[in-house]
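Intended use. Records like the one below are meant for learning the mapping from a protein sequence to its folded structure. Do not use them to infer anything beyond what is encoded.
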Amino acid sequence: MKNLTQTIKYLCKNLIFVLGFVVLPACFMGGLLKPFSTITFVVDYKNLVVSGFGDILKAIYGISWVAAFNWLLAIILFVVLISAVLGVVDNHFKTGKLNVSPTLNFINNNSLIVATYSLIFIASYVLYKFLLGLVCFILHIVFGCLNTVISLPAYIIFVIIFALSLLLVAYLFGMVLIAVVDTCTCGYSILTSMSDATDLIGKKVWQVILLVVLPFVIIVPLVIVGHLFGLSVVLNIISLIILYSYYPVLAYTMYYDFSRITRHDNIKRYYY
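Structure written out for the chain above:
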């Protein structure tokens, strides 16, 4: 796939610059928080004794006031540094020159946009986890598993529902990636950019889903191994570095390809 190839090619050519921006938020979030709690919940859920809906909510959210404060700091750090990455990549795609000197300007220009989309994503993710917990509780009721662990057939059904739900989440996230670039590039409102993103994706729905899901072919095994063998901190950090490096570049790669805009970062220049 062209967009995947171009994304990986860009990362390989400019890896040091990308890592310079994403390592810090990845280390902070991966070291102090549980960024992949939904995946670990699915792993642990088969052993969870459920007496009521509250047991599921406690297991699926499981956040303390300290963790909430750390999440707030992590989000601020994420917004600042991802704003910088988006600005540098945007400038590189437009001019063909990789220049990090206007980083503060990029942060100033993009931080409100990134913060707004981040808040929308967080709210949507919290709602998604609630609905996932509701599905769990309904399965416990339907299969008569209250006050005990979930039965194997019910757990298999839950895993299938979870996997299918991730396809929808992947599509929506891909739409958001393109919308973020559209807002940063054109200055449109969120609603207008989301509409533009839908139009740009058009019939490329499965391509977008595949591009969004692909990193998790690596991430999911890393997270599960880290969770089961006490290596969560290290493997969570590695996983976040992969995601934070991949998605901003993918967003611009898809946007320029779907919009048929000429990229200048991969044009050979003989005169300056």
